[in-house]
Amino acid sequence: MTAGSRRTVPYPSWLYDHCQEKGYIFISADYRLCHPTTTLDQIDDAKALFKFLAEDFTQHLPQSVTLDTARIAVSGFSAGAYSARAACVYAHPKPAVLLSVYGLGGDLLLDHWTRGRPPTSIAKFADLDEYPRLFADQTVISDDSEGGTGFSNRFTLTVQWELDGTMLDGCFGAPGLGAKLNALDYSQRDAAVPEDLKPGFLQSFVTESYPPSVFVHGTADEVVPDQESVHHHEQLVKLGVKSKLCLVKDGPHGLGDFSAVDETGSNSTAAAYKEALDFIEGAFAAV
């Protein structure tokens, strides 16, 4: 939510390569990062992207290339899945299918987001001494790569919010939000979300019109818990929306290990990604 860009590595080359093999247009879009902007700004950015695709994008394509707006797949990794989910709720035209990979936004009411917790694997990207300066900086940023491909120190914002239990405060620009929700039982939290912030709690807007969705998540993810994907998948199943959940046993946040093999002799991460790509192909075929 706070750091990264389309230039950041590691890059999902497996997804890019699949698009090249299929002749799909591959678009990787930046969006405004949380603080000083918020999740609501990220929703606006997702809506703006799809408006651009529907109205102006073809003007920038070679004459021999067209865009079928009925067959747009939207994908997001980690915090990027929040914007992908936002497109599924608010964008026009609506995506034909969602791919969420260890993605955030399936359930922002979990204890994981309302209370403090020990440092996670992204803490190595942070210098907490820099937090006061970063938090005071009101510069709007959508690409923090500074010309490179690595992570900037803006991950310090996320790490400090994780430690303090103020992740929701920071992402929604609402001091005290996490503590307010944490004081309530999980079942009471949705009703307690302030009306002006409720549009950002995307799980509250999952309906029968939601696009088919596939979720890939590691069961050992301590940054974005797999409950996010499980909850979203179960919501869709109850509504009768086609959904597939690909859990990678003991998989960490990032799911970048293509060398390890499971008891069957196959790589569970690669197998999950293959299932996800097959799901997308099926969704396109059904349009």
From TrEMBL:
Top-rank taxon: Eukaryota
GO biological process terms on file: antibiotic biosynthetic process; monocarboxylic acid biosynthetic process
InterPro entries found in the cross-reference section: AB_hydrolase_fold, Chlorophyllase-like
Protein name (record): Peptidase S9 prolyl oligopeptidase catalytic domain-containing protein
UniProt lineage: Eukaryota, Fungi, Dikarya, Ascomycota, Pezizomycotina
